[in-house]
Amino acid sequence: MNELTFEVGGGECLALFGPNGAGKTTLLRVLAGLLRPTSGTARIGGVTLPGGGADARAAVGLISHQTMLYAALTPRENVEFTARLYGVPSPRDSALRALTRMRLEDRADSPVRSLSRGMQQRVSIARAIVHDPHVVLLDEPYTGLDETGAAALSDALESLKASGAALILVTHHLGEGLAIATHTAIMRDGRFVKHEPRGTVDFETYRDAYRDAVMR
Amino acid sequence: MFAAAALIAQKDLAIEFRTRSAFLAALVFSLLAIVIFFFAWDATAVSATDLAPGVLWVIFTFSGLLGLHRSFGVEEADRAIDALLASPVEREAVFLGKALANFAFVLGVQAVAIPAVALFYNLPLTRVLGPLVGIAVLAAIGLVSIGTLFSAMAANTRLAELLLPVLSLPFFVPVVLPAAQSTARLLAGRPVAEAMSWLRILIAFDIVFVVACALAFPFTLED
Fold first, then answer.
1. How much is the pLDDT for A51?
2. In a designed cystine with B175, which of A140, A144, B142, B204 is the match (CB 3.0 to 4.6 A)?
3. Which is it for strands A183-188 and A135-139: parallel, antiparallel or unpaired?
4. CA geometry: angle at A200 spanning A199 and A201, to 5°?
5. Cβ atoms A143, A118 nearer than 8 A
6. What domain range includes position B42?
7. Could you give the ipTM of this predicted complex?
8. What is the pTM of this model?
9. Which residue of B has its CA nearest to A127?
């Protein structure tokens, strides 16, 4: 990544598009505290990265196309484990609330390995939002989701946005991203080649702009 | 930090309790090794008390590796490690939690292997049980410290199963050597005081390895 400067406020969603290898996932991993940038800083909720450490990480929820779950544990155990790591009050109840939000309350006590890929992804989302994060980083979160799962995720993201969380959504699918974004950016070779408010641009116009930006 | 470490250890033990994969593998390996050593043993050439310490520590070392490999294997399966590292938990707490779970694993294997070796080699276990358990616990501290560090390093590689023993075994030597020597003295009926010089070395290496591995651990997780 190089010469990357942007800001996402509470209640906003930045949809980040770009071809493979553009640096989208790397950017999310830096913001999640999983990668240390060679130079530059990021500020999350007033805490500066790198160096902010635990305080910055406490404000972030990370959702990826990999579920980041323990297959031998149940959804309730997975989400409750995360709730306890983040010091959430009443972790058991909070875990069940998060699972209910993702419409998984009836499968809360089945082992994760027995769930479908889409259900596992919904558990992963419940895990990422159980501590009501101020910033949610989403790396291709719709991968593997069926219609119910995608609807539950969209509802959860709208609700997080409404509650004042800042969302950064990385996706290859322009439609998904544009549906929820307040801002959009196109990334190529580690830089933003286009970054603007979502506005009222329609899908076709943005798709043409995306092709121009990526092919240029 | 200790609360988070306890939470991580509890989670690892819950996973192992559900799957029992590594523990059963370690137990089967231990019992098989005891049987093979027993049938390869010429009782007229080597006495049981001379052979048993070597058998015990070979078993503890290699069965421990099975559990240590699993330690970060469960985190890599679907990148659960990313969720753990993105949480506000300090890296040192992750090390401590993993080491605690591995410690319980190694003690569990020792709890079965020690009586089994005593049974096969007709060792006077009741006479030396207290000090022997003390040596086993002290050695387990060193082994799991080293093993937890190298398990984290090896887990992210394609040759994890090969890399873990290659990296760990040379560092196990300063722990296994005094442990085996003090066990030999105990089983030979010598007073505990005679094993004290070896035990001091074991304790010194435990301290060095626990501190060094805890300090080095956060760097093994950096991409």
1. 62
2. B142
3. unpaired
4. 100
5. no
6. 2-220
7. 0.87
8. 0.88
9. B83
Residues shown for chain B:
223
Domain count, chain B: 1
Catalogue the long-range contacts made by A199-204 (C-beta closer than 8 Å, 24 or more residues apart). A203/A174, A203/A175, A203/A178
Q: Taking the alpha carbons of B139, B144, B146, B151 in that order, is the dihedral positive or negative?
A: positive
Percent of chain A with pLDDT over 70: 98
Taking an 8 Å cut-off on Cβ atoms, the answer to whether A58 and B77 are in contact is no
Token pair, residue B94, equals 């992750």
Assigned CATH class of A1-59+134-216: alpha beta
What digits encode the pLDDT tens for the residues B31-77? 999 999 999 988 888 888 889 999 999 999 999 888 888 888 888 88
B202 near B179, Cβ under 8 Å?
yes
> Which residues in B have their CB inside 8 Å of a CB on A?
4, 7, 11, 14-15, 18-19, 74, 77-80, 82-90, 222-223
Domain-wise residue ranges, chain A = 1-59+134-216, 69-132
CA distance A18 to A193: 9
